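User: I'm writing a short methods note and want a consistent example. For Ubiquitin-like domain-containing protein, I'll paste the sequence; you return only the structure tokens, no commentary, since I'll be parsing the reply automatically.
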Amino acid sequence: MTRSSKSIGELPINLNSDSTSFTDDSSDNFFMDNSFDEDEIDDNDGSKRRSVIVDSKVSNFPSDCLSSPSSSLDNEKNVASQANILPDRSSTENVNAEHTTKPKLDLPSGRTRGRSTMKESVVEINPRESKSIDDEKLHRSRSRSRSSIRSLSPTGKYKRQKSSLLYAYDENDDFFKELAKEAKKTTSVSKESTPDQRKRVYNIKFLSKLEGTINKAVQVKVLGKYEFSRILPAALDGLTKSYKIPKVMKDIYKVENVTLYWKNAKLLDFMTCNSLHIPQDFENEVSDIDVTIVSKEYEKNFEASLESKLKEEEAALLVKEHEEIERKLERKRNEQEESEYREFEFELRNVKEKQERTENETVINIKNLQEDDNLLENNSDSEKVMKIALRGQDNKKIYVNVRRSTPFSKVAEYYRIQKQLPQKARIKLLFDHDKLDMHECIADQDMEDEDMIDVIIN
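Assistant:
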């Protein structure tokens, strides 16, 4: 038997476009999302077979595609016994279109694959065509068994996995599309923040070291996207025309005989001005570049001179750095010496001020004592001089000559001067563990010669 997607003598069939699919045996998408039944019509004379896949709602259905449920179940049990009979049966016994069945169909409850879950009921058959209907029942059973076998085949499992994989891929594809959109947004933002390098303009000054134009120069204004291999011919042509180079020397000015150098570095043919990464001070600035043209015959000598020049520059830079470090160290030493000298001057000034203050206090105290001595001498005739001991907190004694009229404030001042105590020092005098009033005098305490007074410093 042969198969074809076309059908011969098709009956009118109304299908629901939302839930119905058509396919043939060669289709890759064999398993559909909805359930289906497969009906086949075979002819002995090589007629074409029609395969219709129907999901649910059917308004008119061909009579050769229906059979009663009870007959179908019986025939399914006898498929194996009648497998050899079916190939010999003639397919010319077609079902008369006038004798039709009226099925009552129910929609499938869930998603199924392979075999339909369609229910059939209330079947009316013309008795005159019972034989044809029985043959068709066998044919129907065969198609059902084929459908069930095909649904359980390894090919079906593989196609089912393929369908699920494609569905997962669609979800991932959406995810990656979103990532691509975000990446495009980021790229657009970065492009807006950077200048357009392809439109950047450079003013190149070609300095010649070729014979006939040594230290001569030509200028070329170009876009930064062009390679030096495309710019060099114009520069060499400008040199030959501007300085009238004779034909004998024009071989020296060929592109293959010269080399370009920029800032002590060799430029290759594929390089561009943009690849030099020259910083731009402001937008749309025309950057200046100095390029040296050297003959390949003297290329090694030129590179050797460049190398020696670089070494000299590095040595000079090292010397300069060393001198800078020495200056910093010298400056630091000078600052440290000045700081130490200032500290010494400050300490010396404090010592001098302290000495001057002490001398002034001593002079004042001496004057006071002289006055007291004069007072004591004046009263020497009437008052007797006594010797009193002043004992400090260190248990050392200082003796002083007093009279009965000498106030204790004078005695305390004498002790302060002898001990070189500051003016702010508070002095207390105790006699027999009693505090003495500075306004009182020796006679008020009835002191006698060689009595001792305790001195306390706060």
